[in-house]
Specification:
Layout: E1 2-5, H1 8-17, H2 19-22, E2 31-37, E3 40-48, E4 53-58, H3 67-81, E5 86-91, H4 96-104, E6 108-116, E7 119-127, H5 130-139, H6 145-158, H7 162-166, H8 178-183
Parallel strand pairs: 4-5
Antiparallel strand pairs: 1-2, 2-3, 3-4, 5-7, 6-7
Length: 188
């Protein structure tokens, strides 16, 4: 396991291993914790975007072997050492391995983002400092119907900037539907 800054050489290695085809957002991270076998990346977790969003992916044949926990724990420790106030993660609440991993490592639910029928995520975070905790309290506004309407409008406006703000670089994200988000709001 090692920590690397993301550059063209690392992106090329992510692509060669096939891991970034599973999660393109890893290429948008500032830095990664990677696990390798025979010089091939088999697992990676990284932080990207203005809001310090975490991405993690393990190649299928290596899932369930503790690699995700190992690299995610190191990601949390490195974030603390880098003096981040907080880190965040989005994950599908139906993805039980991800739910269990992130919950067991101390990520706390902030709100549920029902972006579209196919994109429902828990927004969770870990705070390392008081200003991180204050920021999470502010984000709780999105755990209300009015806050969800506001968030839907903001997401619609800022969708072209998701890579910079969230480190999100996946291609299949539809346009936010404000009416759908409002109708399907779910408080956590």
């Amino acid at each position: 396991m090692r920590v690397v800054n993301v550059n063209q050489a690392v992106i090329k290695k992510l692509q060669k291993s096939g891991i970034s085809s599973l999660m393109k957002s890893l290429e948008s991270c500032e830095w990664l914790v990677i696990e390798e076998e025979n010089e091939k990346i088999i697992g990676a977790a990284g932080i990207g975007g203005f809001f310090h969003f975490s991405s993690i992916q393990i190649i299928k044949e290596f899932q369930g072997k503790g690699i995700g926990r190992k690299i995610q724990k190191e990601l949390i420790e490195q974030s603390r050492n880098k003096k981040y106030s907080f880190i965040m993660v989005l994950f599908n609440p139906d993805n039980l391995p991800s739910v269990n991993l992130h919950t067991s490592l101390g990520y706390k639910k902030i709100f549920k983002l029902k972006y579209s029928e196919k994109h429902i995520n828990n927004v969770c975070g870990i705070s390392f400092k008081k200003n991180g905790e204050l920021f999470f309290r502010l984000l709780k506004i999105f755990n209300t119907k009015i806050g969800t309407i506001f968030l839907a409008c903001v997401l619609k406006i800022f969708k072209p900037f998701f890579r910079q703000l969230l480190g999100y670089n996946e291609k299949d994200l539809p346009e936010p539907n404000v009416l759908w988000m409002m109708k399907n709001f779910e408080k956590i």
